[in-house]
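Example 4.3 (complexes with small molecules)
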Amino acid sequence: MKIAIVLIMLGLSTILMYNNCGKVGDSGLASNGSETTEGDPVAGGIVYNSAAGSEPSCFTCHGANGMQYLGVDLKTYSAAQIETAVRIGPGIMPVYDSSEISEQQLVDLIAYIQTSL
Ligand code: HEC
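Answer. The structure with heme C bound is encoded below.
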């Protein structure tokens, strides 16, 4: 009888182990389920420092540490605030549409500003 219980427990724990497989590190996708992958700060650094279409680079106005002249420190902004600023262009800041900075480039750019600037 005891052996039967042990065997059932073993079987159950094996099933649980296999069920959890594949869930760890499974999410290469952004939380909204879109195709963008996690931000790559190295790729984002290139976006930050390069002109985008006809618009100047972020570096041109925000400088190497994101604090140049403008009274803003980019590192203090949330991902949502950075996204809004890029797509709407507050004040004299240009608007960057998705042909100039793609969704993936924007995710990379945010990763760069928040981790490497
Ligand atoms: C032509 C100069 C210029 C360029 C180029 C520029 N910005 Fe800005 N940015 C500004 C100015 C000026 C402000 C302050 C706007 C205001 O509040 O009036 C600003 C504000 C911001 C803010 C803060 C917005 C807020 O909510 O207060 C963020 C974030 C930002 N910029 C990100 C970027 C990123 C990322 C890039 C590159 C894709 C970029 N900027 C390119 C001039 C620029």
